[in-house]
Design a protein that fits this description.
Mean pLDDT: 97
Low-confidence stretches: none
Bound molecules: NADPH dihydro-nicotinamide-adenine-dinucleotide phosphate
CATH topology of the largest domain: Aldehyde Dehydrogenase, Chain A, domain 1
Radius of gyration: 23 Å
CATH superfamily of the largest domain: Aldehyde Dehydrogenase, Chain A, domain 1
Strand content: 15-25%
Largest sheet: 7 strands, mixed
CATH architecture of the largest domain: 3-Layer(aba) Sandwich
């Protein structure tokens, strides 16, 4: 089945000025659909309508907003199989991951549905006699959401749900590689009891429509997930209008494996963290920092585990690693394999393009050994099914290596020593830290974000999202005439 995806502009489904084809990366002969590219005029029109709709939405009662978010989330969870299949078909992640992503995305909506009813302010006595202070949060206005292809539904949902919860309008520009998931989510939102134009979908390339969106003075806040260079460009555009920004970017996450680690657990965490989502995760375990005492045993199990993983069509039973998302991403991944070798790393397995019955962007999971932390393969985000082992002599060296990066999203330690785990938890310079758990995989009701080049602006998710999606108003109230 092919989709003909339209944009959702000012509350209407409309064609664009051009269209793009969207092919399944597991099987390039499978055309997922053709998708409209929004024009500059359409973007401007929808921004105008969003401003009007936002005022109307902000005045909706709390329960009415709560019902809208709850309905979106409930429908997504109920349709996780169907929508997850579409997601896996266009993005390439194995079906279980696609379904899981849609279900989790639904949970963001039901979580923020409940948050609609939990928006409490603060009050205080003034330092002036007879004066009270009321501190409340109000919507920011029109929020531009720019999302990536690797979690096309979840990332967008953890931005859209709080934006709506806190009373804002949303103009969403999804990644052009994954438009079908964007149309599916928009279709659900479009059927809700919301003001016309409160939510818009503007598909098109980041360079064109994305850039115009972030430069618009009609946008009050921009939430972005993607690469560091694009994030920096968006921040530069935003500052021209003093638009607030929140950015979640790349990382180079490390999993430290200590000499007292349960090695089977460590290997399973490393394999899942490095190759889940075909390694295309901002939380991927792309550096495995391993204590010398267990290095050889760990490496043997790791390489055997990587070689045993099944690469295949995302929708096929038994597939553990799907294709990478695009020809460009595949070319970049293979270039990193060459780079790693030229830097002196040993490729113990994988890292090659695979031929399959279906023509797709398949590559085998690769493990680099004998690497040092100063190699480019250990400093740059590869977004590939590739991981590197770095041998260290002590816990202290492991922690120093984990922290020796310009990024800082997640890090993890595998150890049975409580003192070390506690020390690591307190001293790892990342926004998320895990103990005996993968570096990837986070909850929706607590903050998510990183340090260094990984993040900029307030944290996402949980109650922390209110920092970004609201603005604080401080009211001083006097009774006027004393009684
Ligand atoms: P980009 O940063 O290019 O794209 C992310 C989003 O930004 C997409 O929706 C894109 O649109 C949009 N965009 C691109 N240029 C602009 C612009 N000038 N103004 C406004 N929006 C823009 O990431 P890619 O998808 O190209 O991936 C490249 C690399 O980025 C990956 O290999 C990975 O290293 C990193 N990345 C990290 C992610 C993370 O979760 N941390 C997520 C995705 C990527 P469009 O794609 O339609 O052009």
């Amino acid at each position: 089945m092919q989709d003909h995806g339209q944009n959702y502009i000012a509350g209407e489904w409309v064609d664009g000025t051009s269209e793009i084809e969207n092919h399944n990366p597991s099987d390039l002969s499978d055309l997922v659909g053709v998708f409209a590219q929004a024009s500059a005029d359409q973007l401007d029109a929808t921004l105008d309508q969003a401003q009007r709709a936002q005022a109307e939405w902000a005045a909706y009662g709390l329960e009415r907003k709560q019902a809208v978010l709850s309905a979106i989330g409930t429908e997504m969870m109920a349709r996780a199989e169907e929508l997850g299949t579409l997601l896996s078909r266009e993005e390439g992640k194995p079906l279980a991951e696609g379904k899981g992503e849609v279900y989790r995305a639904g949970q963001f909506f039901t979580y923020y549905a409940a948050e609609c009813l939990r928006q409490l302010g603060e009050n205080a006595d003034s330092v002036r006699d007879g004066v009270e202070i009321d501190v409340r949060r109000e919507p920011v206005g029109v929020v531009a959401i720019i999302s990536p292809w690797n979690f096309p539904t979840a990332t967008a949902s953890w931005k859209i749900a709080p934006a709506l919860c806190y009373g804002n309008a949303v103009v969403w520009k999804p990644a052009n590689i994954t438009p079908a998931s964007a149309v599916a989510l928009t279709e659900i939102i479009s059927r809700q009891d919301i003001p016309k134009g409160l939510f818009s979908l503007v598909m098109g390339s980041g360079r064109d429509i994305g850039q115009r969106l972030v430069e618009s003075p009609k946008v009050n806040a921009i939430s972005f997930t993607g690469s560091v260079p694009v994030g920096k460009g968006i921040a530069a555009a935003a500052i021209q209008n003093l638009t607030r920004v929140q950015m979640e970017m790349g990382s180079k996450n490390a999993l430290a494996v200590m000499d007292d680690a349960d090695l089977d657990l460590a290997v399973s965490l490393a394999l899942g963290g490095a190759f889940g989502g075909t390694g295309q995760k901002c939380t991927a375990s792309s550096r495995l920092v391993v204590h010398a005492a267990v290095h050889d045993a760990f490496v043997d199990k790791l390489v055997a585990g990587a070689q045993a993983m099944t690469v295949g069509h995302a929708l096929q039973d038994g597939t553990q690693i799907g294709p990478v998302v695009s020809a460009q991403q595949l070319a970049e991944n293979l270039a990193y394999v060459d780079l790693g070798r030229s830097e002196g790393a040993e490729l113990a397995c994988g890292g090659v393009r695979l031929e399959m019955p279906h023509d797709g962007y398949y590559m085998s999971p690769g493990v680099f050994l004998n690497t040092t932390n100063d190699m480019r393969i250990n400093r740059e985000e590869m977004f590939a099914p590739l991981t590197s082992v770095i041998k260290v002599d002590s816990y202290e060296a492991a922690l120093a290596t984990v922290n020796d990066t310009t990024f800082g999203l997640t890090s993890g330690i595998v150890t049975q020593n409580l003192a070390r785990a506690t020390h690591f938890r307190r001293n790892a310079r990342t926004g998320v830290v895990t103990v005996n758990l993968p570096t990837a995989g986070t909850d929706y009701h607590v903050p998510f974000g990183g340090r260094g080049d990984s993040s900029y602006g307030p944290r996402e998710q949980g109650k922390a999202a209110a920092e970004f999606y609201t603005t604080v108003k401080t009211a001083y109230i006097s009774a006027g005439t004393p009684m």
